[in-house]
Amino acid sequence: MSKYLIYTCCFHQEIYTDVVSNLINSFKTTGTTADFLVYTTTQYKEIIQAKCPDANVLFLEKNFYKTMNQARISKLDIFDYPGIEKYEKILYVDADSLILKDPEAVFDSIQDDVVYVVGEGNVLNEGEYWGRSLFLKENPEYPEREGLSAFVLGFKNIQPIKKLFIKIKQSFYLDMYQNKLRFYDQPFFNFYLLQNKMCNTETFKTLIRSRPTPEIALKDGLVIVHFAGCPGHGNVKLELINEFKAGLVVAMPTPVTKPVLANETIFLLQQQLEEMRQKTAQLEELLRKQLHQ
After folding, report:
1. Per-residue pLDDT at 186
2. How many angstroms separate the Cα of 163 from the Cα of each of 35, 83, 198?
3. How large is the average pLDDT for residues 112-121?
4. What are the distances in angstroms from CA 247 to CA 26, 67, 96, 242?
5. What is the C-alpha to C-alpha distance for residues 202 and 206, in angstroms, rounded to an integer?
């Protein structure tokens, strides 16, 4: 039984079952001993199982998440999974991601009792991606600082994280019901994780990245890559993923034939020649004896 869990979510659009299938297949190739869980509907579960029949994947089902907003915040429901107590560390990954190698290094890097994320952007960005209005509501003079992306969340299975997730979800739904949402769930992760000093925004930067080229992903030894942009547009996500996968094949170093192979071939030829020489000598000796009889 693994002590590590990776999970993702799949709601709102059926095409995301194709996106998730790419993530599952990439997970399978890593040889990791971590468990993988998909949080989705019963209908999508059956589709995913048909697309990935050999995958040993766990499922958590909920059938009343229909909207994009519900799909985005669903990642916070992980503590509802009945078997969650088995795991020491948990890693959430957006469905539009690929796992390139064994994520053990990612789990090993989770040491403190905070949520590990990838730092990016600026909380005062006009686009509201990183929670500008939430921070300025708290403090009109709030200083500029780096924000964070919520496409990946790494954390220990501890009560303070569970309580924080509940607080984020409550705040999100309150604004959703009051029609105040500016950019889905990410502003709330920025506000609550940064304000409560409950995040590490640096450690994952060397392991996980959004939209790198295949060449950079290989050169930097990235573990996970994410395909940001166009939320809710599954076709665009699939194009980005397939383009990256094709580029990865091209960027992979060509295996070099070991010089020892040539040496082994020469050695075999030398052995065969020596055997032929010995057989020739034996025939000559046999003929010599027959002539003297």
Report:
1. 93
2. 24, 18, 12
3. 98
4. 15, 33, 17, 8
5. 8
Residue 269 confidence (pLDDT) above 90: no
CB 45 within 8 A of CB 265: no
- Minimal CA–CA distance to 106: which of 150, 151, 154, 149? 154
Give the helix/strand (H/E) hosting 156: strand 146-156
Q: What is the pTM of this model?
A: 0.84
Percent of the chain scoring above 70 in pLDDT: 86
**Cα 81 to Cα 59: distance, rounded to the nearest angstrom:** 9
From CA 254, how far away is CA 257, in angstroms rounded?
Answer: 9
Nearest to 157 by CA among 52, 86, 82: 86
Q: Please give the structure tokens belonging to residue 228.
A: 């940001």
Alpha-carbon distance of 203 to 104, in angstroms, equals 14
pLDDT attached to residue 260: 45
